[in-house]
Amino acid sequence: MVVLTSGLLGRGTAAVLFHPKATSSVTVHAKQLVIVNPYATAEGAPVDWYRGNLQAASNWSVGKDLPRQLGAYYASHGYRFLGVADANTYTWVESYGSRQLTGLPMVDATYPFGDVLALYMDHWLPADTLQGAIDWIAQDAGFPVLTTTTAAQLTPDQLRGLHRVFGVEVYDGRLGLDATQQWDQLLTAGARVYALAADDVRSLNGDGSPASQGHGWIEALAPDPSLESLLAALRRGAFYASTGPRFTSFTLSQRTLCATAEPGNTLRFIAKQAQMVGSGGSTACYTVTGRETYVRVEAWDGSGGRAWSQPFFVDWET
Question: Under a CB-based contact definition with an 8 Å cutoff, are residues 28 and 311 in contact?
Fold first, then answer.
């Protein structure tokens, strides 16, 4: 028997259902099915989608362009936030941010064993291991994000051994490299990790490097594009990653998760072990069974473009 609680039908952070389990002829213990909706907002609160890129390199490290040139480009192309991630170097947000473009402090923490994007970080520290790099970023209140190249080289066992990872860059636009498989491996292992995509631009004009701007980004759901609002959206997973398709809404009502993308896209619902558990057109729904541990949504267009929602985590609680 399933008994539905009242008042949690997608407008809060989770939908909760009760599943009573008799442990004796007298005592009954209830388990709650909790589905966490990262896109839930307070009823009536105005929010909008804001596009941003969180991996671009300037001429302060391996890039070819000045920070202000990067800022001007992204602001003129409708982006509302940008993170210039230079290798082991903090690039001041004042050098590329503006009224039109919020600068997010970050550093590309580079080591012989791989790279970790240190989001909301203004310094770099040495580390001997990948876990050590993740730990110092998390300990200093940053967001440790595995780059696509680092995630792609890790075995499933190595991925499962990592802790405190905030996100995985599932797509790198400059390299055309995908790490969705590694993200699903982390999710299946029980990690609560988010997906990001970035264009990883190193030169706006090519200049010997492939021009990759606009090949990957994230869209954050927030009241405004201020640094405070954007960080709050990132912390709760209220954003999606994309190389082209755009989501317009996510709703959760009881066990039913619905997603809508722009017309012309198709949707896929993905659960643990990367299993596709549902699909549909530009608007589609999936009913959670309680066995998934997570459900995420992908949008695909007709030319290979792809968007990744954040996971709706599914759990039974006593």
Answer: no
* Helix or strand (DSSP H, E) at 75: helix 67-76
Do 55 and 85 form a contact (C-beta atoms < 8 A)?
A: yes
pLDDT tens-digit readout, 258-315: 999 999 999 999 999 999 999 999 999 999 999 999 999 999 998 999 999 999 999 9
CATH code, domain carrying 237? 3.20.20.140
How big is the CA angle at 138 (ends 134 and 141), to the nearest 5 degrees?
A: 150
The answer as to whether 270 is a domain residue is no
**One-letter amino acid for residue 290 of the chain:** G
Q: Is residue 289 part of a domain?
A: no
Query: Given phi > 0 = left and psi -120 to 50 = alpha, else beta, which region is 274?
Result: left
Three-class DSSP category at 23: coil
Does residue 97 belong to any structural domain of this protein? yes
Give the separation between CA 179 and CA 124, rounded to whole angstroms. 25
Stated pTM of the model? 0.91
For the chain, what is the domain count?
1
Our measurement of the distance from residue 129's CA atom to the centroid of its chain's CA atoms, rounded to an integer in Å, reads: 24
